[in-house]
Amino acid sequence: MKLAFVNGNIATLQGYTLSPQRGENFGDLGLMEKGTVLVEDGYIKEVGKDLPIPSDYQIIDVQGRLVTPGLIDPHTHLVHYGSREREYTWRIQGKPYMEILKEGGGILSSVKQTRRATLEELLKQSRKSLDRMLSMGITTVENKSGYGLNLETELKQLKAGQILNKEHPVDVINTFLGAHAIPLEYKENPDGYVEEVIKMLPIVREYAQFCDVFCEEGVFSVAQSERILLKAKEYGFKLKIHADEIVPTKGAQLAARIRCVSADHLLAVDEEGIEDLANSKTIAVLLPGTSFNLMSKKYAPAQRMIEKGVAIALATDYNPGSCPTENPQLIMTLACLNLKLTPAQALAAFTINAAHSLDLAHDRGSIEKGKIADLVIFDCDNVDYIPYHFGINHVQAVYKRGVKVC
Ligand code: NIG
Ligand code: FE
Question: At which positions is 4-imidazolone-5-propanoate bound (predicted)?
Answer without folding.
Answer: 84, 147, 180, 245, 322
